[in-house]
Amino acid sequence: MNIDALKKRIDVSTKRMPADVVIKNGKIIDVFNLEIIERDIAIVDGYIAGIGQYEGHETIDASGKFISPAFIDGHVHIESSMVTPAEFSKVLLTHGVTTVITDPHEIGNVSGAKGISFMLDQSEGLPLDVRVMLPSSVPATPFENAGSVLKASDLEPFLTHPRVLGLAEVMDFPAVFRGDEDMLQKIVSAAAKNGKIDGHAAGLDADGINVYRSSLITTDHECTTKEEALERISRGMYVLIREGSVAKNLKALIKAVTPKNARRFLFCTDDKHLDDLVAEGSVDHNVRLAIQEGMDPLQAIQLATLNAAECYGLKEKGAVAPGYKADVILLDDVNSVAISNVFVGGKLVAQDGKYKGAESRSAQPSAALTQSVNMTAIDSEKLAIPITNGKPMHVIEIIPNQIVTRKKILAATAENGKFTPSHTNDLLKMAVIERHNKTENIGLGVVKGLLIQNGAIASTVAHDSHNLVVSGTNDEDMLVAIDAIRDMQGGYVIVKNGAVLASVPLPISGLMSDRPFTEVNDQIIHLKEKLKEIGFHGDFDPFLTLSFLTLPVIPEIKLTDLGLFDFKTFQHISVQAE
């Protein structure tokens, strides 16, 4: 801010000159005192200059409405929405979210620094304020192959970008524990720029949390129980209460929030698919669910606004008060969080669920991003799992609507020394195929709980290295699915009896579409409708679930391109159990 701008703001505040915009007759949600106040809001140059009685060049009548600070998503991977930041912006603004803290590690794992640059360029100048945390763990672990490796030196140039806030979720906790020099350099470099450092403390005990906090890590979004949340709070961390498409932790964690510790909690979505964002919302859904679970509405709004802003040092965000940016939402009802109008800097960007902002000029992806599926030919022999019929085998068991899994030991079903899928026993074959550098790596395993009766599904969305993941009841359909993914250069596909039933092309790094969000949403809805034709009957998203069965930093057992991975021992194991 320069002196002239400051003088103008003071002149409006003192009523020596009229405001640009005045919002009148509304009920302001005071997130500092958790009270409702009825005053005018004076806005000049996109910032709030005063709360009281004011006149302005433009008046907005908020009679009968509550005026809330706009919402902030504390941790989200935009790539998981399957659309570009420009299209993502249109969706979130209709749900009252005007700021997100994003970690582009999905595209970073596929396309490296070029992927991060694309996300920064694509989000420049949007009405949605996209703040970026730099990917800390690319690849997530040394037990898989991603499309890129990002060292501290690769991240350093991005730390001076005005929208970069720090270092994203440090998920390679063994690297922290053993004092890996490059990991520590990433932390030190971010801290030197006053950057924030996010954690990823899945499965860590109290001693592990001690190490994380000693390493300047201040947040965790991986809590699944009240006890875990309180343990992290007691050691000075912020806990991000996650409610995404597959990881739904809010109902368990909201029990940990009390009036005494509430200021250390905030909300996030982490990974949420486009159709879920359109249908139920983003952080606004978290707020509604928290209220339904018994939290005071003003407290829930505080978590989604002021708490998130303070956690990430966004000093001009998170409140309706003088000196804060005029990012506000009008609510018809505070209990149901019914959003009627959304303003960014005092300008209307969404009304009654419709985007009202300007169209943005979006950066176009390079060929390096749109030609990311590089694989050699796959045949049925490469999908064979040698195993003895009736002998014990290690199985990945799905827990519906969770990203954690169970490690099971079950009797093998095999013919001629090779595993045979059994839809009767709900035991399907699963493969993770390296798709970045033609290494010919194929990890093979058995999954229980995917609930497919006939056919196969496949995707290049496979956290976090995003290799090609496929599962099915027979090799023939799995091979057709693999070929379809290669031809599309990434995306989702359903196959039955050798025919593609539905697909969603994701040509940008195999993660995002280049189409408008409305078109992509229709494709996703069609894809899910076709799941019935392969006998799927679960109450979870099998594609999203499959995408997390490849993430080795989450308990208990996962599959990478190098094989089955045991989280407890942190090493690969064979399908055949001893």
UniProtKB/TrEMBL annotation:
Pfam families: Adenine_deam_C, Amidohydro_1. Residues 402-571 form the Adenine deaminase C-terminal domain. The keyword tRNA processing does not apply. Keywords: Hydrolase, Manganese. Its EC number is 3.5.4.2. Its cofactor is Mn(2+). InterPro entries: Adenine_deam (IPR006679), Adenine_deam_C (IPR026912), Amidohydro-rel (IPR006680), Metal-dep_hydrolase_composite (IPR011059), Metal_Hydrolase (IPR032466). GO terms for molecular function: adenine deaminase activity. It comes from the Bacteria. It catalyses: adenine + H2O + H(+) = hypoxanthine + NH4(+). SUPFAM superfamilies: Composite domain of metallo-dependent hydrolases, Metallo-dependent hydrolases. Residues 66-349 form the Amidohydrolase-related domain. NCBIfam families: ade (TIGR01178). HAMAP family: Adenine_deamin (MF_01518). Belongs to the metallo-dependent hydrolases superfamily. Adenine deaminase family. PANTHER family: ADENINE DEAMINASE (PTHR11113:SF2), N-ACETYLGLUCOSAMINE-6-PHOSPHATE DEACETYLASE (PTHR11113). This is Adenine deaminase. It comes from Fictibacillus nanhaiensis.
